[in-house]
Amino acid sequence: MTTNPNEQPAEQQAMSRLVEIGEFAGELLSRCGTRDGLNIQPGSPLAADDDLSTPCQLSFAARACILSAADHLHAVCALVLKSGTLHLSAPATVIRGALECASPVLWMLSPDTSDERITRGLRWYMKDMRDGYKAVTEVGAPEPPPLQDAKERIKGVADVLGISSSTVHSGYQSTEVVSEAETCLDTQQRSNLLLIWRLCSGFAHGRAWPTMVFATATDKTSDPENPKVIVTKTENTYERVAMLATTAEVALRSAVVLYDKLGTAP
User: Fold this and answer.
1) Is the dihedral of CA 244, 79, 131, 255 positive or negative?
2) Which one, of 106, 99, 122, 101, lies nearest residue 49 by Cα?
3) Which of 43, 137, 196, 240 is most buried, judging by how many CB atoms fall within 10 Å of its CB?
4) Strand partners, 231
5) Contact 56/153 with Cβ under 8 angstroms?
6) Residue 35 DSSP code
7) Residues with Cβ within 8 Å of residue 221, at least 6 apart in sequence
8) Cα(166)–Cα(155) distance, rounded to whole angstroms?
């Protein structure tokens, strides 16, 4: 579907909303790209967490996720507004990436205690390294020494702090993280984060159900060679993309607010 300059008011408003989201993501990317953009203050709770978890600093894990979430969010706005085509599945696929990066920040930083924040940070690091291990060993390659060394460092931090090695080794599941991230959002901001993530994941995997419940069927015709088969043409709308993108924006904004709060000295 190509973009139409004569869109309906709701579609025009949605496009304006996507411009706003893209500007937010772009500003956050610029902040991430400066030396002091995501620095934390000495004496802040996050600085204390980093001191205890070095070399697996909690703030590094959070910054990595914030940067990637902003990159995905900026990318989907550019895709939708500048490509000249409103794709059916691709916007949701990219938004899924933003959700899966913003959610771990909320999950890692939301606990009240330093011990639990650090534990979740170590679980994030371990999942990162285990995913890398799986990727290379499944094709018959040996585990790269950097991955081995990283896992030993993670275990070392856990041992020093008395954190269960089995808990750290378990890593985390995206469903767990997204579910808890939703509870971290302000009551007025909650927008079915888990449902939106599942919907975006469905589009990313080529499932039928997201198209059936979310896309617009614009044309239904019988297959001339097989009358029992109905051929359906489906299209996306800017309004639907804006709704999905807004959910990711809310999650990312909340993640940055929490990061800044913990990174500020009392």
Assistant:
1) negative
2) 122
3) 196
4) 221
5) yes
6) T
7) 230, 231
8) 10
Instruction: Check residue 2 and report its DSSP letter.
Output: B
Which string of b and e fits 85-124 if b means at least 16 CB within 10 Å?
ebbbbbbbbbbbbbbbbbbbbbbbbbeeebeebbbbbbbb
**Cα–chain center distance at 98:** 3
d(CA 190, CA 106): 13
Strands (E), the chain: 216-223, 226-235
* Distance of alpha carbon 147 from alpha carbon 258, whole angstroms: 30
- 177-212 pLDDT, tens digit per residue, is 999 999 998 766 566 899 999 999 999 999 989 888
Alpha carbon of 141 to those of 128, 132, 137, 138, 213: distances in Å?
Answer: 18, 11, 5, 7, 42
Q: What is the value of pTM for the model shown?
A: 0.90
Cα–Cα distance measured from residue 221 to residue 90, given in angstroms and rounded to the nearest whole number = 25
Q: What is the pLDDT of residues 61-105, one digit of tens each?
A: 999 999 999 999 999 999 999 999 999 999 999 999 999 999 999
Please say whether the beta carbons of 122 and 163 come within 8 A.
yes
Q: Are 216 and 161 in contact (CB under 8 A)?
A: no
Give the C-alpha separation, 41 to 246, whole Å: 30
Asked whether 101 and 255 are in contact (CB, 8 A), the reply is no
Place of tokens 């304006």: 16
**What is the C-alpha separation between 91 and 3, in angstroms, rounded?**
14
What is the token pair recorded at 210?
């997201």
